[in-house]
Amino acid sequence: TQNFKLILTVNAVLLKFFIFCLLSIPLVIVSRKSLLKPGSHGFYRFFGWEALLWLAVGNIPFWFSAPFCPRQIVSWIFLFYSLYLVVAGVILLKRQGKSDDKRQDETLYSFEKTTELVETGLYRYIRHPLYGSLLFLSWGIFLKNITLISFVVVIFASLMFFLTARMDEKECLEYFGQKYSDYMKKTKMFVPFVF
Question: What is the pTM for the complete model shown?
Answer without folding.
Answer: 0.91
